Amino acid sequence: MELKAEEIQLIVQQVLENIDVKKLSRVSRPPVSGGDCGVFKCVKEAIDAAYLAQRDWVNNYRLEDRRRIIEAIRVTAEKHAEELAKMVRDETGMGRYEDKVQKHLAVIRKTPGVECLTTDAVSGDAGLMIEECAPFGVIGAITPSTNPTETIINNTISMIAGGNAVVFNVHPGAKKCCAYCLKLLHKTIVENGGPKNLITMQEEPMMEAVNVLTASPKIRLMAGTGGMGMVNALLRSGKKTIGAGAGNPPVIVDDTADILLAAKEIYRGASFDNNLLCLAEKEVFVMEDAADKLISEMEKEGAYLLSPDELNKITELAMINKDGTYQINKKWVGKDAALFLKEIGVCGCRNTRLLICDTDENHPFVQVEQLMPVLPIVRCRSFDECVRAAVKAEAGNRHTASIFSKNVDHMTYFGKEIETTIYTKNGATLKGVGIGGEGHTTMTIAGPTGEGLTCARSFTRKRRCMLAEGGLRII
Ligand code: NAD
Predict the structure, then answer these.
(1) Which residue, 175, 120, 186, is CA-closest to 153?
(2) Shortest CA distance to 448 belongs to which of 291, 296, 231?
(3) Chain segment 154-193, per-residue pLDDT in tens
(4) What is the pLDDT, as a whole number, of residue 20?
(5) Quick check: 46 and 200 in contact, CB under 8 A?
(6) Which of 103, 146, 232, 275 for mutating ligand 1's site (highest number of atoms within 8 Å of CB)?
(7) Whose CA is nearest to atom 3 of ligand 1?
(8) Considering the domain 34-245+454-465 in this protein, what is its CATH number?
(9) pLDDT tens digits, 249-306
(10) Is there a contact between 89 and 177 (Cβ–Cβ < 8 Å)?
(11) Ligand 1, closest atom to CA 399?
(12) Which atom of ligand 1 sits closest to the CA of residue 143?
């Protein structure tokens, strides 16, 4: 059969129209070797693989693909939330299983995806300008021991939603559960058609790996979640850094507060996961008139009030005095309240979740971030004294604070003085991170560098596109 030139042209045109260009470009992806579901022996390989994956992610996948893959990540992570909570509890020996399940569910359900990548537009006589949220590229993410897999899930959703790949350096004390979690998410990404190695880590986390990450030209941004030593090290590296550091959140209870509510909420917040959250209530400043009632209501909630002698024994356990300055004894971080009591010979209080103590503002439990279910309560003669003491204890971290009050002037004044990233009124500080409160959830609260409660938008850079001469404008 002979075909005419027009017929051949038509056939060619139809074939070309049916070719999936996206598929072709995926076939021509550069090959990636090594790694076991994103877990690599060497950090350099983890970086190289993530670099290739990011180029693929940003060039060959649409926003709809990001949305679909993030949804699949949520489904997988939710299926494994209880298992992950148990693994973290077993490996780190810190916190409470049931609260860890809650933390996992919060990050899985309430970490925003691509929906928070909004475009700004200005349309005027001189044309049309749009500013969009573009990826940084590959991000190096340092994660803590206190919310290890929660941070991996949260950072993965936020960072890949922004079009990035990520190389994690996890805390050595949580390396097994982190590798397990990363592999689960990695498998989900690949099974749903996403690129291999979009999320990677080095199997054996090391401090030197952090230096390799900060020195690599392929890493365009560092995101550090943990103590101030780590955040400051990243900031000194010269690499653009989003730093989420320590807090020591004070709570003020004034003489207008609903004391029953305050006792209930503070008990819940300060005992949640044995006070491991950086944003959990760490010390209370209460006006004298309200103090006895607050303490007795907290006891009714289930708190155990330490005697001065018991407090001394617990301080000796939990704090190390180095030439007059106190540091926490890491052995006791995140341990159950009942274990503290058992260690000092107090029996019969197996069910308490929180120890409270009546102390002065200079006590190390007030001034040092201790991540333990031990909550000091300081009596103050006036509201001004509460504010002054709270600002001192918060120590410029600008992390989290809360107040229980019905006095709007008090609420406003404290908010202005304390300058924290999260400020909760009449509720547990947990609510400030979306756990039982409005707003999204994150495990990376970037106070020091100012991004606040991070989400996908925080891990993008702004790029402007300007169409001059009024083109495309319809008015
Ligand atoms: P950590 O600082 O001991 O460790 C955090 C991470 O940093 C780990 O991966 C660790 O290996 C690494 N690291 C530690 N020192 C480093 C250094 N000098 N250089 C490079 N990397 C270093 O913290 P942690 O005990 O795992 O977590 C608890 C701390 O993290 C608390 O201070 C808590 O307030 C803070 N935290 C803050 C947030 C937040 O969102 N702001 C969230 C969770 C935890």
Answers:
(1) 186
(2) 231
(3) 999 999 999 999 999 999 999 999 999 999 999 999 999 9
(4) 46
(5) yes
(6) 146
(7) 227
(8) 3.40.605.10
(9) 999 999 999 999 999 999 999 999 999 999 999 999 999 999 999 999 999 999 999 9
(10) no
(11) 41
(12) 9
pTM over 0.85: yes
User: Structural domain boundaries of the chain?
Assistant: 34-245+454-465, 250-438
Cα–Cα distance measured from residue 336 to residue 350, given in angstroms and rounded to the nearest whole number? 9
Angle at 229 between CA 228 and CA 233, to 5 degrees: 110
| CATH architecture assignment, domain 250-438 | 3-Layer(aba) Sandwich (3.40)
Q: Which two tokens stand for residue 448?
A: 């020091």
Q: What is the mean pLDDT of residues 398-410?
A: 98
**Coil, strand, or helix at residue 457?**
helix
Q: Is the CB of 147 under 6 A from ligand 1?
A: yes
User: Would the CB of 278 count as within 6 Å of ligand 1?
Assistant: yes
Atom 17, ligand 1: which residue's CA is nearest?
Answer: 230
C-alpha 188/C-alpha 73 separation (Å) is 6
Residues 6+ apart with CB under 8 A from 445: 244, 247, 278, 279, 399, 400, 421, 422, 433, 452, 453, 454
Q: Alpha-carbon distance 438 to 454, whole Å?
A: 15
